[in-house]
Specification:
InterPro entries: Methyltransf_25, SAM-dependent_MTases_sf. With 200 residues, the protein is α/β, with parallel strands linked by helices. It is built from six helices and seven strands, in the order H-H-E-H-E-H-E-E-H-E-H-E-E. It has a single domain, classed as Vaccinia Virus protein VP39 (Rossmann fold). It has a seven-stranded mixed beta sheet with strand order 3-2-1-4-5-7-6, covered by helices on one side. Helix 2 packs parallel to helix 3. The longest helix is centred in the last third of the chain and has 17 residues.
Length: 200
């Protein structure tokens, strides 16, 4: 597993491995990059292409942005509130093979106004339900400003997240990408659940 992680980092000319929970609290969860094998499966799902703009919440050192931009040729925006980890994303952007298709914002997710070009959003449990609800409101505002298909991808979602998402009037369950076979053992959370905004 780790060999695959290092090979991808090397190929993309970035450094994103390792976990960091030095600034985690009850609202903002530790930095832990999505495994590359999961991002490969997402990239191969056909749900993201070069015409899409992906917004990665809690981007950390930018792995999701660099990897998806490389694999699907999409544009991507990473939002990160921790200035120390954000510095890692910016440093990676200087070297990354897909750096020109990526951009990063140092701000809290709930404060970030979602650009009307964004039509894909990615979450790997970056924050609490309280923050998630505020972020969803921001996404809805952007949707009303420019009605379009927006897909939200939730990797390894908690029961709490799923319960919250199922009660959102503006969200419709769209699809599920199974990732359980990529890892040893059985884990029902090993999946990417996809919702669409506005039911388009």
């Amino acid at each position: 597993m780790n060999q695959n992680e290092n090979q991808w980092d090397k190929l993309l000319k970035i450094k994103t491995t390792g976990r960091d929970d030095s600034r985690a609290d009850q609202y903002r969860y530790p930095y832990e990059p999505t495994p590359y094998c999961v991002l490969e499966r997402l990239a191969n799902s056909g749900l993201i292409s070069k015409k899409n703009v992906v917004l990665d919440y809690g981007t950390g050192k930018g792995r999701v942005c660099f990897s998806l931009s490389y694999q699907t040729r999409c544009s991507s925006i990473g939002v990160e509130y921790d200035d120390r980890i954000f510095a890692g994303a910016r440093a990676n952007q200087e070297q990354a093979v897909s750096g020109k298709r990526t951009s990063f914002e140092l701000t809290s997710a709930e404060e970030y106004p979602v650009p009307t070009s964004v039509d894909r959003c990615y979450f790997f449990n970056p924050f609490s339900i309280e923050i998630l609800r505020k972020v969803l409101s921001r996404i809805y505002e952007s949707y009303y400003e420019n009605p379009r298909e927006i897909l939200l991808f939730f990797y390894y979602p908690s029961e709490e997240y799923i319960s919250c998402l199922m009660t959102e009037e503006l969200l419709l369950f769209f699809d599920e990408i199974d990732t359980e076979d990529l890892f040893e053992g059985k884990n029902e959370r090993e999946r990417i659940v996809v919702f669409s905004v506005g039911g388009i």
